[in-house]
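Sample intake sheet
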Amino acid sequence: MPVEPMPDPITKASDSPPGLLAFVDFKWLMAGEGHRIDLDRLQQEPVYARACLALAAGSASATLRQAAQRLALTPNAGASNRQARP
């Protein structure tokens, strides 16, 4: 019986959209620059999320800018839980 190779966790992680870890990474990278981030608001409030991502985009830290770009592609970043209007 042939043995299937184990999936590469690095490749596997990069193929999937960022999840909670991306939000936590972003929070701590922002904290390193003196900005407190509320993860609940970041995931629920589109205006707050855009403001945080814009602030990170102007950072001198390439790592923070990249984290913001990854987060911007995340469906939960600023996702609204509002009801649809008629």
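Comment: The mean pLDDT is 78. The helical segments are 9-15, 20-32, 39-44, 46-57, 62-72.
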